[in-house]
Amino acid sequence: MASADVGHLAPSDHAEAIGQFVIAWSELEHAADELIMRLGVLDESYGSIVLGHIDFRDKLAILRSLGFVKQPNDEWFAFLEKTVNQIDGVLRPFRNRIVHDAWSFTPTGRAFRVEREPKLLRPQAHERVLDTLRAKPTTPEDIVKGVKWAMFALGALSLLLEMPLASREAYPWEVLNWT
């Protein structure tokens, strides 16, 4: 029996970093679901039915709205809103690039994410060119940064799950910084 041609497989360091990011992202999505169920007073069964049919970006919008209505204090909501904005504006686009871009690997192990994002450019004043693909060098360390961002966001959502039960002085808010 002939073996199937699987093309160029990712070097193990890139594959491991991508796998770690996907695992961290799934934990982040689960934490968002848990917070929505807690704020929306949904039990596990109903929550799973409803949340299983909702896109993650819509879940973030629901989380922001529920958080506003259920906020125990202004600081809690400000932290929730900052967390949701960072997940939606920074981490989610990074996730989309890691998961949906094509990957190309050289025989020496260099990796490139190939973005398919058409842009109309003007290289000179009266000239227009359509740029459709861009190859971006991507190291395992670049991907690991995303793992760290996802784990930080996971920690923030986990903290928000617990904070309504405690006073706002229970955690030094200034310690959690996205930069």
Describe this structure in words.
A 3-stranded antiparallel sheet has the order 1-2-3, with helices on one face. The protein is an alpha+beta fold and 179 residues long. 56% of the residues lie in helices and 13% in strands. Mean pLDDT is 85; it is low at 1-6. Helix 1 runs parallel beside helix 3, helix 1 (12-39) runs parallel beside helix 5 and helix 3 runs antiparallel to helix 4. The longest helix is centred in the first third of the chain and has 28 residues, at 12-39. The protein has a domain at 12-101 and 140-174. The chain starts with 11 loop residues before the first helix and ends in a 17-residue tail after the last helix.
Tally of separate helices? 5
Shape by Cα distribution: globular
Arithmetic mean of pLDDT: 85
Beta-strand fraction estimate: 5-15%
Give the proportion of residues in helices. 55-70%
Number of E-type strands? 3
Cα Rg: 20 Å
Structural class: alpha+beta
Query: How would a crystallographer describe the biggest sheet?
Result: 3 strands, antiparallel
Q: Termini separation (Å)? A: 53 Å
Please write the string of helix (H) and strand (E) elements: HHHHEEEH
Q: Ranges with pLDDT <50 over ≥5 residues?
A: 1-6
Spatial strand arrangement across the major sheet: 1-2-3
